[in-house]
Design the sequence.
């Protein structure tokens, strides 16, 4: 009886019942597909909760096109208009996955080659193809040639090389690198570590390995002295933790699961209605 009432209502507003049910199936399918992407994004955030310098992602949605059955403002008679129209939506889709560059908590390591940016900006690293990639992961070390490199062995950009017999290293907030040499009172200036900024950091392309590459959306990299021109300062002996909140991600995961289940339920109900229509004589 309930399903027959739904069919009669559809006929009253000028919608073919079979067409309406098929649209419901497609609409629910778009919701399930969108939530699948959402769960994948949340899963990636949770997997990287302990990744140094990782920035969490957020799935964004948008509605699909609408089928207009009755225009709002169309005439009902010579002297009156429809106050509201009839538009039926066709579902949702993922419009983008945005990366949030909010700061992560500092993790004190006391390793002189561990660096953290307090504020906006990125370190630059020289890739094997000699292009520059960008990272918030300041887990650096020194290779056999005395060059400051990241975990993948990529040199810092511009390259910083320490003289032989270096006993200790001091890196100031503005990125100035000083090496204290054996049997030498005054430190040797080994260079300066810049901080790179972008007009739109969210437009950077993730390469994996905590590295990003600039894109047309991000704009070109702006090389700044740390602490100047909106660039963050550099902190020695600390690393930036991931900005992922496990509590928030678990809440988002439960919401995504419920949304997926409800879309699945809609598909089942629409399928039941379609079977009822097919059995009507």
Sequence:
């Amino acid at each position: 009886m309930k399903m027959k009432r739904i069919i009669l209502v559809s006929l009253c507003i000028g919608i073919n019942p079979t067409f309406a049910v098929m649209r419901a199936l497609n609409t629910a399918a778009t919701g399930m597909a969108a939530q699948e992407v959402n769960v994948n994004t949340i899963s990636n955030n949770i997997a990287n909760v302990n990744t140094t310098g990782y920035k969490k992602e957020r799935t964004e949605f948008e509605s699909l096109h609408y089928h207009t059955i009755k225009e709002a403002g169309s005439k009902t008679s010579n002297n009156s208009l429809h106050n509201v129209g009839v538009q039926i939506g066709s579902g949702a889709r993922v419009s983008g996955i945005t990366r949030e560059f909010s700061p992560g908590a500092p993790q004190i390591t006391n390793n002189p080659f561990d660096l953290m940016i307090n504020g906006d900006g990125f370190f630059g690293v020289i890739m094997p193809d000699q292009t520059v990639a960008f990272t918030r992961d300041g887990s650096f070390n020194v290779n056999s040639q005395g060059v400051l490199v990241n975990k993948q062995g990529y040199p810092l950009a511009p390259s910083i090389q320490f003289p032989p017999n270096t006993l200790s290293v001091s890196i100031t907030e503005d990125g100035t690198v000083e090496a204290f040499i054996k049997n030498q009172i005054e430190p040797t200036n080994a260079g300066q570590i810049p901080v790179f900024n972008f007009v739109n950091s969210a437009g950077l392309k993730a390469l994996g390995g905590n590295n990003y590459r600039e894109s047309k959306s991000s704009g070109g990299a702006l090389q700044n002295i740390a602490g100047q021109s909106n660039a963050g300062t550099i902190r020695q002996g600390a690393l930036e933790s991931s900005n992922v909140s496990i509590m928030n991600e678990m809440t988002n995961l439960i919401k995504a699961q419920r949304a997926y289940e409800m879309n699945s339920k809609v598909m089942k109900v629409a399928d039941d209605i379609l079977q009822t229509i097919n059995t009507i004589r």
About this structure: The first strand starts at residue 57 and ends at 63. DSSP finds three helices and 20 strands in the chain.
